[in-house]
Amino acid sequence: MSQPFFDPDTYASQLAAKRQRLVELLAPFAAPAPEVFESPHEHYRLRSEFRLWREDGQRHYAMFAPGDKHTPILIDDFPVASRRINQLMPRLKAAWLASEALGFKLFQVEFLTTLSGDALVTLAYHRPLDDAWQAAARALAEELQASIVGRSRGQRLVIGRDHVLETLQVAGRDYRYRQPEGAFSQPNGEVCQKMLGWAFDALGQRDDDLLELYCGNGNFTLPLATRVRKVLATEISKSSVHAALANLDDNGIDNVTLVRLSAEELTQALNEVRPFRRLAGIDLKGFDFGTVFVDPPRAGMDPDTCELTRRFPRILYISCNPETLARNIAQLHDSHRISRCALFDQFPYTHHMEAGVLLERR
After folding, report:
1. Is the domain of 321 the same as that of 205?
2. Which residues hold S-adenosyl-L-methionine (predicted)?
């Protein structure tokens, strides 16, 4: 069935409203006009999560409006999601209806797909998973040509791989990414490529080093590393660190030092507040940082980390929350000016948007 929040006829007007909102947020800082990168109007979301709702004796895919967990919107197809997800949805539903081993106490389904066509399906249960489930899941994985992960309390069973393989192109080069199940990855692959291309261009070719905070699975690290002499990248999530290390190796990128530290911890290390064993053998003073790249969570940078970025001649900032972006820029505005900014429409038909700014020392 159709979803009330999906209306391609409104795309241009909703994008214009987001642009105006970003312009207003950055107006106090004399920002230039934003470069605007639109999304495909449908089939743009590579990740989707559905609860299952029982009605007329069957379980159906369901979503809920924000703030309402009691009135389900039953889903047959989902034009917001990738074509691969829409192909998988009816086949998976037929499988759980036909198989007690797959369908019994199944309550949630998550799809993770890629632009290159890979797919992983996570099935969550209110019961232990047994040998019968594993046999049925293996047959399902073969039928769907997808990996399957089964989850229940204290269990995580993997049929195939526990990650998908993505290929993104930046400036004519293909980069290969492992995107783990359960870890963050950019949901809109087409817009993600545009974000990477913009950041790659904004950084430019440099003969100094890059500090990257919140590097995740290395989404930006891979292309940006080709623009500088060396990179010091930090990330706190273990699964993301493992994925980033694998992605660096898979792409033959060897000028990145990756440490598992939070941005706050790295700030303490650079300020020589206290030592960290995870930095043993790393000469922080041996880096010649010309640019710091940040892609923080929705809360933005904390004041101390924001103050740390002030040290750098150039700050390249990707934000999933323009309100906290504006708050951080307000802290930096006396020392840095905005030389470029961009709007990336990662989440069409919602109020959410991603923004990018390049701040350069005055």
Report:
1. yes
2. 186, 214, 219, 235, 295
Identify whether residues 68 and 149 lie together within a single domain. yes
CB atoms within 10 A of CB 287: 18
Catalytic residues: 320, 354
- Give the total number of structural domains in the chain: 2
Domain assignment present for residue 233? The answer is: yes
Q: Is 186 annotated in some ligand binding site? A: yes
Residues 16 and 147 in one domain: no
Nearest to 215 by CA among 239, 246, 236, 198: 236
Q: What residues pair up with 258 in beta bridges, in sequence order? A: 233
For the domain that residue 159 is a member of, what is the CATH number? 2.40.50.1070
Residue whose C-alpha is closest to residue 54's, from 104, 124, 112 = 104
- Give me the mean pLDDT over the 151-180 stretch: 96
The DSSP code sequence of 237-272 is -HHHHHHHHHHHHHTT--SEEEE---HHHHHHHHTT
Residue 295 is assigned to a ligand binding site = yes
Mean pLDDT of 144-154: 97
Residue 258 lies in a domain: yes
Give the pLDDT score at 70.
81
96-118 burial code (b ≥16 CB/10 A, e <16): beebebbbeebeebbbbbbbeeb
Q: Would you give the end-to-end CA distance of the chain in angstroms?
A: 54
Residue 153: give the domain boundaries. Answer: 47-164
More confident: 34 or 304: 34
Alpha-carbon distance of 158 to 155, in angstroms, equals 10
DSSP letter for 208, please.
S
pLDDT at 282 > cutoff 80: yes
Q: 340 and 354 share a domain?
A: yes
